[in-house]
Automatic annotation (TrEMBL):
Gene3D superfamilies named among the record's database cross-references: lambda repressor-like DNA-binding domains
GO terms for MF: DNA binding
Name the record gives this protein: Helix-turn-helix domain-containing protein
PROSITE patterns assigned to the protein according to its UniProt record, in alphabetical order: HTH_CROC1
Species annotation: Streptomyces jumonjinensis
Amino acid sequence: MAESPSSAVREARRTLGNRLREMRKGAGFTTARAFAARAGWSESKASRMENGVTSPSREDLRQYAELCGAPDTYADLVAALHNIDELYVEWWRVEGRGLEPVQRARVPLYQRTRRFRVYEPSVIPGLVQTPDYARVIMSRIIAFSGIPDDTEKAVEARIHRQSVLYDASRRFALLVEEAALRARFGDAGIMAAQLGHLLKAAALPQVSFGIIPMSADRVMWPVEGFWIFDDRQVLIELVTAEVTVKQPSEIAFYTRTFAELAAMACYGPQARALIADAISALG
């Protein structure tokens, strides 16, 4: 697994590596080199895993458990590895069967979340996308990634997830850069319908919709899009992977970032005026 920009992933690897080191020393292998020799590995393999440089495989963990005389620890070690795998998921691993499974996999997370905080720098958030706008985006992702074309099912799944938006007991703070209103996904008709739908969604009492104007005096620079689900986890979509942050200190950092960005945004009539300007610019 490639090195993640999230310190949570690095910390999780180090924690698992420290546990493997303690097991190895407890079993009498004084050096990682000695353990690697016993396991039939290259000299550096055990060292890399114990220092959190690389993640072990399930078979590597089985070797540790058996050679250290602690077979009962295998299940716990695999659970720790699974947690690391959840923190940094490369798109090719989850999109191989198309986009529809990815969309449906998020449904339980959406259903249990009561407070959504969403920042998108260049696209309209999925929660308030029209089917046509979503269709254009998904078809381009599919073409770019060369994955199976399940556009219609993926769009249907995304629209189905939007049902939570109409639950008045939840709260939604949606924040975009003005550039997201201007970025063309589809023809003028699709964009006009999308921006019109945005006006309706922003009027819902449970929704706070903010737009950071291009003319804003910036105190926080644009960052990658991220979604905060309650105070339990953050999802960040990178070009190559999705990062899940669950470490409280990192969640707090994203919460602070969201607050800084939100302070620069305009709301209500000013936000509606920016949307109207974007519609007018379509010609």
